[in-house]
Amino acid sequence: xxxxxxxxxxxxxxxxxxHLAKYxxxxxxxxxxxxxxxxxxxxxxxxRCPKCGEQHLYGPNELRSLEMPSPPPDGYKExx
Length: 80
Ligand SMILES: [Zn+2]
Fold this sequence. Notes:
about 80 residues; 3-stranded antiparallel β-sheet; globular; binds zinc ion
């Protein structure tokens, strides 16, 4: 079972940290169109990266979906 998350890739140089924007759930159960709607709505979000310390604006059109083998760990925080 694959789990889908939406992330922003840190814009810091050579950082590569992923910021968890939203956990969408198991791939097979995701409602059709939900990813497109998430991409289309919302303002840019200012995020400070815990890894490199740089702060950047991230827009909905910069979201990327990733498939993970397991859900995010307990206590994870979504940005959206
Ligand atoms: Zn970073």
